Amino acid sequence: MKLSQREQVLSALVIVVLVVGAYGFLRFFPANQKIDSLQKNASATQRRLFRARIPDQPTEDIDKLNKELEELRQEIDLTNEMAREIMHRLAPLDSQTLKLHISQLAHNSGVYIRSNKKWLTKPANMQSNPAAKKTKKKKAQAKTEFVDDLVLPATASWVARMSPGTLFARPMQRLELEGSYAEIRQFIYGLSELSYQVTVLKINISKGPNEIPAGYAQKLVSELILAL
To answer: Which pTM does this prediction carry?
Structure first.
């Protein structure tokens, strides 16, 4: 059956509408859904940005903080340099050379060394632990704990602060000298001129045992604890 020209035109229009509709359904609507999803995500992101808290600007000047940091670094470098100089002046442990120099200084100062012995002290890093008292029979015994490089308070004596187990631990020597006040004084001041560091931690001076005739310098006995 042959369609009229009018029917052919209408049929063509229907086909065009169907094709356009199918294209819109297959391409436009999915794209539109994607656009809608992106718009929703953008809106959600915008709301989060509005709710976000912007950090406050630092109240301190950055340049000032950097300057203070550099000053601290310089102080640390200076402290390390001073520490290296001090360590360089310390004698090796149990240095016989230093002990010989001390004996020579005593001879040159005119003092007589009555006694020269290593001074042994109880390690400062030994601390009693009361928890170790388990029975009445052993309640007098306490467990010993060792703490390395212990720093004692400034109220403690230097003998204690330089005893074994402390941060400043050094070998100690006990000297008992006999001589006049001037001779002992010369010896003590001469210690600071030795090649290695020697520190007087403790000193006691008493009258000598022998009576001295009038007109002669009184002999004194001095006990020194030295850190070598």
So the answer is: 0.53
Tokens of 143: 């467990």
Q: What is the dihedral of CA 180, 185, 190, 196, to 10 degrees?
A: 110
Chain segment 204-224, per-residue pLDDT in tens = 988 877 776 666 777 889 999
Q: Could you give the CA distance from residue 128 to residue 130 in angstroms, rounded to a whole number?
A: 6
Q: Count CB neighbours of 201 within 10 A.
A: 19
Instruction: For residue 124, count other CB atoms closer than 10 A to its CB.
Output: 21
Q: Which H or E run includes 63?
A: helix 62-89
- Concatenating the DSSP letter of every residue in 102-146 gives HHHHHHHHT-EEEEEEE-----TTEEEEGGG--SSTTTT--EEEE
| Structural domains for the chain | 96-227 (3.30.70.60)
